Amino acid sequence: MDQTRTERGLILFFRLAMGWTFFYAALRQVSAPAWSVAGFLNNTKTFHDVFSIFATPDVAPIVSFLVAYGHLLIGLSLILGLMVRVSASFAILLMILYWMAHMNFPYIDSATNFILDYHLVYAGVLLLLIIKRAGRVFGLDAWAEKLPFVQRHPGLRPLVA
Description:
By secondary structure, this protein is mainly α.
């Protein structure tokens, strides 16, 4: 089904907006050598026992590295429109984990957010980007799908299709 010009514009806007959100978070995390997930994860409430494991001195540096550079890769992927299905899937997982980490059931982050907050809205937008194949809208997914390497290895097509 063909997309209208307006729909393609909105898909591009949301892909770039989500890409910038992750890319900017990565810039702040990667450029701050003392940045760590431990401060945030030590203050979780509803699922504290789950998240506190990742805040231990042995695990926190690894998780901090994975989060910072995961944000960077997700942001670049969404901005470039390359492997959007993969990056958006990981981004949805992160958004759900952040939603759980912010939770003080039934409130999220503060008393003004009851069960639903921006993390779940972002996850919904990311799911829409996957469904709409947002990497094909002024992105590199359509180009990558036509590469001879991808053509010879059909198992790679779902990554860029």
